[in-house]
Amino acid sequence: MAMSDRPDLAAMLFPFVRELMAMERPILEANGLTMWGYSILITLGSEPVRTQAALAEMIGADKTRIIADLDALQEAGMITRDVDPDDRRVRLVAITAKGRRARDRAQAAIQREEERILAPLPAADRRTFLRVAQSLADLTRSS
């Protein structure tokens, strides 16, 4: 099989993703969040209540990995973890108003910076890139 004229996807995307993560870190810190904490709040925004195990699966983390992040978010008043009345072994996780405000502030600031980073691209290319990125994210979640 002949070698391709293009680099592998990871080789192309990694420098860009690394730049995005570096851009996000101070924004998240300014809002009292870690990247994992932000991922949790973003996920809770789409579904108001999840079990800890289901939440970990949704963000692609081991359920034991996110316990410290859940503890920190709960201590900061950004989430609640209540016993499920149907199964006392299960904790239901819900975002609070404070968590929504922190998530929304962080997301707005991150997306402003993303627009700045993508600004050199023609508008049609930006729209296409964002549409394809969303399609790839959806494919990844469904596999």
UniProtKB/TrEMBL annotation:
GO molecular function per UniProt: DNA binding; DNA-binding transcription factor activity
Record-annotated HTH marR-type domain positions: 6-138
UniProt KW Transmembrane helix keyword: no
Keywords: DNA-binding, Transcription, Transcription regulation
SMART domains: HTH_MARR (SM00347)
Keyword Transcription recorded: yes
Domain of life: Bacteria
Protein known as: DNA-binding MarR family transcriptional regulator
Source organism of the structure: Microlunatus parietis
